[in-house]
Amino acid sequence: MTDLSAFNITHFAAGSANVRVATLPPLSAPAASSTPDVDDDDDGFSLLSSDDSSNSTSPDLTDSSRTALQLLYPADSINPAARPLGGAEFYAAPLDLSNASSVTLTYSVFFPSTFDWVLGGKLPGLYGGRDGCSGGDPAEDCFSTRLMWRKGGVGELYLYAPKDKQPAALCADPHSVCDAAYGLSIGRGAFRFPAGQWTTVSQTVALNTPGKADGGFALDVNGVRVVQRSDVYYRGTGIRAAAVFSGSRRAMGMRRTFFGGHEEEWATPVDQYVLFRDFAMVKNA
């Protein structure tokens, strides 16, 4: 595994063996018919260049060839907690977001043209309060804003936040499906991830006033706004006010991606991979 130090990974929960660095042709997407070359000897790899005094990070695009994170999903894998272990989960902190109230996370993702979507899977997003805000967690003192692909490449925001505090309007949208046992599917079908092409997603989270459902979430896909909400409840008052972008001095978002769901019907039937690149983060406020 090559140098991912610029991410400032604080916790690699699972799947480190499934993460590689792929070398891509300059300014072009990888051929759909072949797996990109994996560069295990490039100790100088840096996907993000960050500065502690800065409010943003951005990709290092100075190399003559491009690099991307390649995430492997082995056949029959469902999620990083199951066997075989699929995808990966790690928490990164390239910026000090302890006092942030609005943050934007951007990255590009590539699904090969032969990708089997099965029933769906999770993609990276932001989190706040503490880690582990997923997998049926009640999310009373945390939140996470992962993206998700569904069957056929249908996309959505997969939101974990205090479920009983969300306004009815958030789930009344015809594009939203709210499951009391797991996360809230917001804007399902508002966009699609096309196979064989790079898709750039940019999500902005603006924290709510503690105790009020006035938080913001916006999602742009290839520069087009597809989801926008101003009624999200991310954090409460008192002890729940801890749900800010950090439980420590430095925090960011989770890089969590896998097939699932937790049931066998979500598992990928064959070995598959997805590519990620152009990670960037901005502290807006």
From TrEMBL:
Domain of life (superkingdom): Eukaryota
A GO molecular-function descriptor: lyase activity
Domain Polysaccharide lyase residue range list: 63-279
Residue ranges of coiled coil: none
Amino acid composition bias (Low complexity), ranges on this chain: 45-63
Chain intervals for the UniProt region annotation (Disordered): 29-63
Keyword Lyase tagged: yes
Keywords: Lyase
Pfam families according to UniProt: Polysacc_lyase_14 (PF21294)
Protein name: Polysaccharide lyase family 14 protein
